[in-house]
Amino acid sequence: MNVVRRTKAYAAFAEDAVGISVSSHHEAALFLQHRIGSTSPKVIPLGARSVHASPGISSAAGSTGVEILMAGYVYPGKGHDEVLAAAAVLAGRDLGPIRLTVLGGAAPGHEAEARRLAARAGDTGVHFTVTGYLDRPSYESALAAPGVPVVAHLHYSASRSLLDWAEAGRKALVVGMRYTEEMAALRPGTLVLTESDPLSLADSIERLAGDRRATRLGPGVLLAPSLDDVAAVHLSWWANLPW
User: Fold this and answer.
1) Which residues constitute the domain of residue 27?
2) Lower Cβ count inside 10 Å, N or C end of the chain?
3) Is 143 in contact with 72 (CB distance < 8 Å)?
4) Are 42 and 121 in the same domain?
5) Are 101 and 68 in contact (CB under 8 A)?
């Protein structure tokens, strides 16, 4: 139902627009799939705040057990159920406490989703925490904390979370699909791809948890295009639209 509503809304915007830009080839394919607009959209990726991954990320030891980190709002389809399923698999292994921490709060109107996830985690022996809103310094500090960063969205168009992890010098574990494979090619070495089934996801999390350097990017890793790069492309594109 939500896809139908959004398709109608985007189609209405496209009808009155002189040009359409999207943040990924994946998103452009969705426009074509749903027949939104009469021309192929211009693809301009999201820009990173810095050209290079942040140096000096903390490598302090974390608690015993396995720490799993997810960033951003809680809402249906964000991948929390899939990661909880993997965490439940890990809880059945002799690894110590399994913790899943969401760095952010529930999206407005989805507070019940956070409560549902907490109840499900409790039933499987997983320690589940939703931090609530974090200001920028607190958020950046949380991104740098020990743990395995996981991004497991089910429905992508673009994802700021992937860039948040990379800008913090982290190599996130992501479920392989059209969008994440595109981003892995755009910014090589910044993502670890895995399968979406609970066992594969659990095995990947356990492997990364056992090597603290595996989710840390070196300061020389390129995150281009930057915000400045993307702004320049937008300005050039806008200047040539048939206003």
Assistant:
1) 2-47+226-239
2) N
3) no
4) no
5) yes
Residues 114 and 10 in one domain: no
SS3 assignment for 75-141: CCCCCHHHHHHHHHHHHCCCCCCEEEEEECCECCCCHHHHHHHHHHHHHHCCEEEECCCCCHHHHHH
Cβ atoms of 43 and 25 within 8 Å: the answer is yes
Q: Burial level of 74, CB count in 10 A (0-12/13-18/19+)?
A: buried
The model's pLDDT over 32-88, given as tens digits with 9 standing for 90+, comes to 888 887 788 999 999 999 888 876 555 555 578 999 999 999 999 899 999 999 999
134 shares its domain with 198: yes
**Cα-based distances in Å from 102 to 85, 123, 131, 155, 175:** 15, 18, 6, 18, 17
pTM for this model (two decimals) = 0.91
What is the token pair recorded at 203?
Answer: 């095995």
pLDDT digits (tens, 9 = 90+) for 115-131: 999 999 999 999 999 99
Q: Are residues 36 and 137 in the same domain?
A: no
